[in-house]
Write a structure and sequence with these properties.
The protein has 120 residues and is an all-alpha fold. It is built from four helices and no strands. Helix 3 runs antiparallel to helix 4. The relative contact order is 0.16.
């Protein structure tokens, strides 16, 4: 995903998150799926930003954001009984095991990024 596409995707994910938070009354499963998918998508955007960041400090910042988004996704998934690749409203989503895999990769990449390595 190119930088301009990431920015557009991030904007759309943030709009979806706002919608999901509004729908979360009273804790609907549809909203949980939407929030889990949105957090994971924001993690994917931040991960892409980390992979193309120019400095170790920037990479570290984006990896940290990605980690946080993936963790929030998993927190939502933990509240969904029997999660599926297809949400109740028929849209396709990543299941928790896929988010866990991305989180593990993110943590591995974070451990290889040292912000102090850049000369400013």
């Amino acid at each position: 995903m190119r930088a301009g596409e990431r920015e557009k995707a991030e904007e759309q994910y943030r709009q979806a998150l706002t919608l999901a938070i509004a729908l979360k009354v009273p804790e609907s499963i549809d909203a949980r799926y939407l929030m889990a998918a949105t957090y994971s998508g924001l993690g994917d955007v931040a991960s892409g930003q980390a992979q193309t960041a120019g400095t170790a400090q920037q990479r570290s910042k984006f990896w940290d954001q990605a980690r946080s988004w993936y963790e929030q996704s998993l927190a939502e998934w933990a509240k969904v009984p029997n999660p599926s690749h297809t949400a109740p409203n028929e849209f396709k989503v990543d299941v928790p095991s896929e988010v866990e895999r991305r989180l593990a990769r993110c943590r591995m990449d974070m451990s290889h990024t040292k912000p102090s390595a850049d000369v400013q």
